[in-house]
């Protein structure tokens, strides 16, 4: 159940962002149809490979790590959505507002992720004990007695 829910979360999350960007990037033209065709081919291949690799990854980690990954993804998605909506509300009527709001949202989520990972690294370096033992030295060569 958890594996299938995680797979669906990944598939639909991967499908949402590019499809929404395609609708605002291209006007009604042959380029738009071509872009949707390329996106469909890549999304289909990515979904099939993603399900396979997701199953392998799920088998290699425990449930608490899977839940932690889902919570982290949800947190960063919330940062993205909040920043994009705020940007869109404050710049109403601007040209290519959807693209600019998405870029602003992704940039905000990236910097939040970088800060969280940096803080995690700092905490790990401070909490985890360092192995302060000196590296082993080779034994002195025995001197042959005459």
Compose a concise summary of this entry:
The chain folds into 2 domains: 1-60; 63-127, no CATH class. 78% of the residues lie in helices and 0% in strands. The chain contains 4 helices and no strands.
Structure description:
The protein is mostly helical and 146 residues long. The chain has two domains: 60 residues; 65 residues, no CATH class. Helix content is 78%, strand content 0%. It is built from four helices and no strands. Helix 1 runs antiparallel to helix 2 and helix 3 crosses helix 4. The longest helix is centred in the N-terminal third of the chain and has 31 residues. It is elongated, with a radius of gyration of 25 Å. The model has no long low-confidence stretch (mean pLDDT 78).
Using brief descriptors, characterize the structure shown.
146 residues; 2 domains; mainly alpha; 4 helices; single chain
